[in-house]
Specification:
Chain lengths: 725, 235
Amino acid sequence: MLLCTVAFLTKANGQTAVDRNTSDGLSPFEKAELRRLLDLDFRDLSRTPIRGVLGYQQEYWRNPASVHVLRPDDLRLNGHPLTVDAFRNVSGMYVTRGVGYDDFVTMRNFSGSATEKFLTMVDGREVLQLMGGTINWTTEDLPLAILDRVEIIRGPGASIWGTNAISGVVNVVTKHAAATQGNNVRLLIEDDGTFLGEYVHGGQLSEDSYYRFWIRDQEYSEGELVSGMPARDDGYARKAGFRFDKELAMDLDLTIAGSFATRRVEHILDLTARLFYYNAADPSSPIPIHLAGALNLPNLPSPLIPSSWQSSAVPGQTLSALGLPRYQNYEEMPQDASHLRAKLSGISDNDLEWSLSGYAELYDTTLGHVGHSWEREEFDLDFKANKPIGDRNHLAFGFSVRHMSLDVDEIATPPWRFPVFDPSTGTYRSDIPILDYGTSPTSFDRYAGFLQDSIDLNDRIVLSLGAKFEDSDLTGSSIQPGARLSYALDERNILWGAYSRAYRQASLVEEFTKVSYGRIWNHPLLPGQWLPMDFESDPTLDDEKMDAFEFGWRTRPQDNLLFELSLFYYDTTDAVFSGPPIYSTSDVKTSGGELTFDYNPSHTWHLQGGYSYSRGKKDGVPQEDFPESMANISSHLKVRDDLIFSQSLYYTGERTIASAYNPIPIDDYLRLDLGLVWRPDKTLEIGLFGRDLLDPDHAENMYNDLDVEPGKVERTFLISVTKKF
Amino acid sequence: MSFIASRFKQKLRARRSFVLLGGLVLLLGFGTSSLHAQSTRASEEERRTARVQATYLTHLVHFTRWEKRHLPAEGESPKIIVVGNESRGFVDSLEFLIRQNALKIEGKLVKFEYFDNSRQAQAREALRKGCQLVYVLTNSSFTPEEINNLSDSAVVFGEGQEFVTDKGGDVSFVTVRNRVKLVVSEKYFRRTSPKLSSKLVNLKSVVEIIPSNGPKGSIGHRGPNFHSVVSPQSK
């Protein structure tokens, strides 16, 4: 239907298309490229390579990959406060909100125990948290004024990007300091009181050196859970950063940048089904203690619930079909993060383009709800280069070294502080933590290198062959090869295909952390006593290995219309899923695709959208934790020269949030956002947006087995003001 | 010991595979290169160069000021003229960008005219009537001096460093280090009209300024490696 509509619009608007019968010597792709070049400033234009490397140049129309590029206007015109919100406009990306400060992103794939099975980089720095295998989107977000673009590459790109680029790559690029001169203020406030303020100041130190610094404050107001209870998700995330750029000589640049982020919020742990009674008839299915009490089973504990547990009771609330009384524990979850990076880049006389980057990062967090805290120090050195060889080859290569060390600490949170017999020590303990990192390794090194050749076989076919080699204390040695091919059928059609092998390393929790998730009463080992229920980590967990096959078709039937079709089939072995009773690995097969379009019916109207389908099977069983179908369409209509009317519609199919005792079905939902953006002059922008207008609220997601219930994603009204001076 | 041994073997195996794969990549890459002619490959690269050059030129118009005496009379449009033959899509790209950008000079929409070498007389006539910017393609017989004699209001663009250093042109494009850069005569900054904004002086990585008294003058940035300059059409 979408295709038919667009085809109809194309025909109907053929006479008003951006340009029709002139400049006939240019292909529609070349015209689109010219429109993109026109938006670049002198500095960026001077950095546009005449010959590029596949995989580096995301916006080259012959790139044999499924690519979406987000720009600042995609956030401004759609009323997205954060970069992660803008991913909702990217087909194949599944973006959900748990509570106010928690966003989840999945790409084309299954979730397993970690949602972010793709690599995210901010100015070249990997931001994946290795401990839990997740990304903290609020900590990593940046002021919109310094954002240049976000490149989203769907599908594995391991041969250049490396480990964890399994289901895709998100590459965030910030602007050169010279591009953010002067002052920029951005303020957003939602009707529920959630606030975001950003200030960026840039200046010039000498004729060839520039600087900027920025601060950012995000204040979360408290929302509600779907049951109507307070979500206790109020708090703040504050951040400050700087960047210094200097041209040392022609084509020799130095960049030094850094930031500090701090966040203070609370998080919950569901304690409802953590105390059990031993089930002699089926030891693998212990009976929740309240159910045992209701059934008046023999030799029950007295009191039924330990006194330390009582303070976490939520009177009058029950959960699951069994009607279990609800227990929960909120604790502080502070996070502090800082990093410094330096980059030296240049081009030599023989066209060798190179960069040498160093990163130092310090991350300190406490997951109070599970009593787990760690401090991580990380140092990275990264060299990348590319060079045209002869007329047909463009070689890219690089090396990187990483050292990471951890200081991990655990405590038992208050509800768990009651005597339990610990068979491993033969003593009674009331200090058994939920996550126990124990004496597992805390220092890790990683060495990596890659080599890739982009070969122009003729004027129609470009072939890219490459591989990445890694040796890591965490995962041993691996080779991740990839081959991509692009074929220009004619001036309007590009076909491409790819095979890649990608790896995702198990998170440190999965590999090294013993999980004590409950207590059991009346176990035959020690009748009439509480014993811990736990499952061990698995240091022998292999990397998840994915063989990925992709096929794409990119077409511009006319200058103002672009269609892209991407199909994929992923075959993953050793995919990690959390227990109990143990972290298990499974074979997962995922297939699907995305059909996207970008259409300019006239100079004043821009339409973008797409449909994505993804279906996964874990050990042959269809997975229900990812919606099969998603669609999005956004329209930006210039009502006047200074006024833009924005409409966005998002559809997300149904799914189920998995849980051992309380699976939560999430119905499909349709979201409509409308907005007006007024730009009275080049220095001022005022936006008014209504979001989720079709529904007062709906549920999207939560951490299964940790959270009790999802938060309400509510209808909100938002005003944004951006001023440059 | 077994752990170390296993890791060592693993590394050895991985290294061997990596070398094999790298060899395969290079073999395939270089092998295929020798099998194919170069002409089609150059075409794609040249077209890309032309697109970047056309974009630069469109931008430079915004950074140039013409005094009233160098602008067309009331009711007439300022002009950009291209002379010479080419097959890289430069003319089409420039024409497209002028329309796409609704390019204006001092508030008036720009008119674009192109004359190939078979229409030299018409080109001469158009230049005599006056224009604001002229792009001289490599194979054109027009010289900057001749154009200046025909029209004193025009900025004269061309290709290759010698267009500025030896022939007296105002700006030229050069391809160096896989990028398109600008060589700009100092007189384009110094004179009152048409005059290039001094903002561009600081863009060391983009602009090489050639002093009015020759390439070894004291003012301006001298790129260290411009001796390797290659004009895209000279390949």
